[in-house]
Specification:
Layout: H1 2-24, H2 32-46, H3 51-176, H4 186-206, H5 212-215, H6 218-228, H7 234-362
Length: about 375
């Protein structure tokens, strides 16, 4: 009977203790740690355990919770510092990649403009080179024509002067035989006729390029020679000789003028040819330089295409890495915050239990 009564008293006391603890920890009753701690204290008191030992146990649990909180604070601070360093490195990598990308695009734009300018220049230089070739060919053709024309005219003048001197010799021979010579030998008559015909031919040949002042001398000479084929009049003979001498002088002057004009033309055309050759060399150097630069630019543009693709990839990957790192940091911060709240709750629960034990010890 007494044993049953004792068990009933213990049971009532235990029930009272559990109810009292539950009320004190009403805010934490549903908390897994709170429920476990209530059970721990209840079991200890139910089995008659020492309250002081229980208090020491609770204090030890609290100390461990505080130490664990401090460890988590330290680990979180270390993680935060490392995360900040890693993010700073990623941000620096991103900024450098973006700067590289901007520089590459600016260089690409500048080179593209230079490429367009050079392509225009190459077309202009090539057109100028084509014109130069045409001009050189024309200048050479003009020089060849000038030389050929000069050779023809010079030959005409030389022939005319030679014929005049031959006529002069014939006429001087006639005059030496006597101014009153009436009868002509057959050879002399033939020579006079041939000389007259030669003068007629020379006149016709020179009409295209001889001064009129020279041509006016031919007709009276021809007429005088024609007259002397029948009889020799000393006055006519002397007159023809004088005209022939004047004609020789006029033809010599014409030949001298022809040679002077020819030299001027040759000098001008030669100088033009030299200028065109120099221009050609300049254009060829300019064209070769431009084409070499075009190759360099095209090669660099191709290289820049690859570099821009790489820089774009680095920017995109780094941005993704920054997003991932930021997301991980946010998750870690949230997890740390949740753990800190949970740890503080556990410490609060242990404090309430210690207060309860102290209260029991003081009763």
């Amino acid at each position: 009977m007494k044993s049953a009564l004792l068990l009933l008293v213990i049971a009532l006391a235990t029930a009272s203790t559990v109810a009292d603890l539950t009320q004190r920890l009403s805010n934490y009753a549903e908390h897994p740690f709170g429920s476990s701690m209530i059970n721990l204290v209840s079991v200890n008191m139910k089995t008659g355990g020492s309250l002081n030992e229980l208090k020491q146990l609770l204090q030890q649990i609290k100390d461990e919770l505080i130490a664990l909180t401090q460890l988590q604070d330290s680990e979180n601070a270390t993680f935060t510092r490392r995360s900040q360093v890693d993010l700073a490195k990623l941000q620096a990598t991103l900024e450098q990649a973006q700067q590289d990308l901007d520089n590459q695009r600016q260089e690409q734009s500048s080179l593209s403009n230079e490429l367009a300018t050079l392509q225009t220049r190459v077309k202009e230089d090539q057109a100028a080179l084509d014109r130069n070739g045409s001009g050189s060919s024309d200048a050479q053709s003009r020089l060849d024509a000038e030389n050929a024309d000069f050779a023809t005219k010079l030959s005409d003048y030389s022939d005319a002067i030679l014929a005049c001197k031959e006529a002069q010799r014939l006429l001087l021979n006639l005059r030496g035989e006597g101014a009153s010579l009436i009868q002509l030998t057959q050879d002399t008559k033939s020579n006079l006729i041939q000389t007259k015909e030669n003068f007629q031919k020379i006149k016709e040949i020179l009409e295209a390029h001889t001064k009129k002042s020279s041509l006016t001398l031919f007709q009276p000479i021809i007429e005088g020679l024609a007259e002397m084929t029948t009889k020799v009049n000393p006055e006519t003979l002397n007159n023809v000789l004088s005209l022939v001498a004047r004609l020789i002088t006029a033809l010599q002057e014409g030949q001298d003028q022809l040679e002077a004009n020819h030299k001027t033309q040759v000098d001008n055309l030669t100088r033009l040819g030299d200028d065109l050759r120099n221009e050609k060399q300049t254009l060829q150097v300019s064209l070769a330089t431009a084409n070499n630069r075009l190759k360099e630019i095209q090669s660099r543009l191709n290289e820049l295409d690859g570099l821009i693709n790489i820089s774009n990839a680095i920017v995109e990957v780094t941005q993704l890495n920054i997003q991932d790192a930021t997301r991980i940091n946010e998750l870690e911060d949230q997890e740390y915050s949740n753990q800190k709240v949970s740890r503080q709750t556990e410490i609060d629960i242990v404090d309430r239990l210690i207060e309860y034990i102290n209260q029991k010890l003081s009763e």
